[in-house]
Amino acid sequence: VLFRLGNTSQACGGAWFAADGSRIATVEKGRPELAQVWDGETGALVFELAGHTKALHGIAFSPEGERVVTGSEDLTGRVWDARDVRCLTVLDLYRRSPTEFDGDFSNLFGLPEVFCLPGTNHSNGDSEAHPPKLNLDHEISFHFIDHGRRLVSSTISALKLWDTETWKCLCTVP
To answer: Distance between CA atoms of 60 and 62, rounded to whole angstroms?
Structure first.
């Protein structure tokens, strides 16, 4: 053990790491609607992200580390500025957007082929490929792509593509 995060007796409900290891986000089982962000080298608490009304199930750090995205059972995602710890916007993770995708899912987001959805037209012609499942149960996943210019959110009800400059939903895959 390199260090212990905080001095709490509460069990950890989840942990997410920045790609460079500089930050670690955790959720305590006793306060599941609050994210705590820790320094990856020292284990010191850097800041807390409060604003959701229900338990958090997904957190992601942007590639440059300037933003943190949290997703909650309250049906929202929140985008946080990691420099001044303020909420930049609230994302509706569950409601369908006006722009729904109705076509070939194989490379909708420009992802490597391993992330293509099952049953789609893969370039190798194998429609039986089994890529990783994106979401089970009430898990909420976020993935920054295209050098941080886009965010993919995945919930049990929808996969969404967000523009990270405007935070508008570009597309929803039901």
So the answer is: 7
